[in-house]
Batch of 2 targets.
Target 1
Amino acid sequence: MTDDPTVRLETSDAVARIILNRPDRLNAFDATMAREWTVATRAAVNDPAVRVIVIRAEGRAFCAGGDVRAMAAGGDAVEGGVERLAGVINEGISVLVGSSVPVIAAAHGTTAGGGLGILLASDYAVVGSDSRIGSLYADMGLTPDLSVTAQLARAVGERRALQLVLSPRLLSAVEAYAWGLVAEVVDPADVGSRAEAVARVVADGASSAYGQAKRLIRSQPTRTFEEQLAEEARTIGAALTTGEAQARIAAFAAKAARA
């Protein structure tokens, strides 16, 4: 990464923070940011000390997707073609979604275009009450990418997904919460601290169980119903043998005996 990376990775106390750092372009992706995003996501997921990941951003917006101005100018946002650029960013999204590490998003301000895909790569999203979230691809004559068509309908339902991609609509924070797109709406000044608090609960709790629960839900479309039941049984059987589960079960049993 460069001395002033467009995506920073900071890790401490079992929490990895992936920070989008291109505020002058509303954290829109160009080729450099795409590469740094994928490096950061892979490093966070592959770090055995990391129990939870937080995605947040600098500036007044979470992420505006691709750098449209650079596309218009033929700049480095289209180095090797938009398809290749999307492919690089997709690697990072796939790493996060396919991992057994819970991902928390602190999405302040506007989230639009491919930024919606970044938001959908999180498992728990905290937004500010002034946040706006939308697709806006069609306004540019473009089609959704960065996992939007792969994940949006699963998150909010097919009809609502169509409403969002077939219009220039930006959801308010309250609407995004009502649709199930985000988990919490807080004061704009508290987005970061609330996301950190949620991450702390995961990191200090039964983080491996949280991670496996995330994996089971995220990977379910790849299995039949019967296969999913079998995978649930296998996973809970494996979890029962861990020291983490044994200690927590013993503590619960002791507390119940005293009641």
Target 2
Amino acid sequence: MTSSLPSLNALRAFDSTARTLSMTAAAQQLHVTHGAVSRQIRQLEEQLGVVLFERAGRGVRLTTAGIRLANTTQQVFSQLEQTCDQLRREAEGAPFVLGCSGSFLARWFIPRLDQLKRDCPELELHLTASDEDQPLRPGVDAALRFATPPWPTNSQVIELAPERIGPVLRPDLLSDADPATPTTLLQLPLLETLSRPQAWPQWCHQQNLEPASLRIAQSFEHLNYMLEAALVGLGVAIAPAYLVEEDLRAGRLIAPWGFIETDALLSLWLPQTAQDPRARQLAEWLRHMLNQ
């Protein structure tokens, strides 16, 4: 049976040119001559019966047909690269690399590493800090993220547990005579993190309070900084319950107003083509630990 697909070299030449909008830049990426890229694209246009590029100054721009094809080639070549990288890493016996926010890494995961090693001794895990709103970096097998559905179609998302947030403070900021009511809370200095500005308004909404009544005393760039400020008594922080479990257990912080569920979920994110069985093993362990 004759394949109707053009040659892989021609599609690669097209994809590189579509990404750079320059045949010269594409040729440099592919380590071939400008003429070789030009011939591959011309042959591809002849085989498909459409024009894929138009001249634009010193470069080129995609036609409507070119945009359609570029959307597909970028997705397919990205998936090929991810799958080949995964296969190469598995063959080399590389550890499973998990990315998560620095605050979750320090406050939840590291205190439980010994438990993970006891429960899953065959799982060699490497942890790395990563931003929750960034795509998976090359070499990172999966990432833990707090996010709200619907999920993107270019990722596998394994839901683990709902996000629960609540106000926490040092015990000596609240006297025995102070009732644990929302009104009492709003009389105290409040701390927020710029990475989650919606947290306090979400809490107010569930308490039937106007967000305008909030008195934010200090904002912090990172959640970890905000929690450190709460631990030294600068005010009341609002944080995911998972990140303050150890502080609550040790009595360093209290949560007299409890926690509320948000629409977000803590989930394990993987590339769309990922088939590493270690991801499912890790997800099951995480789900068990998070829901204890």
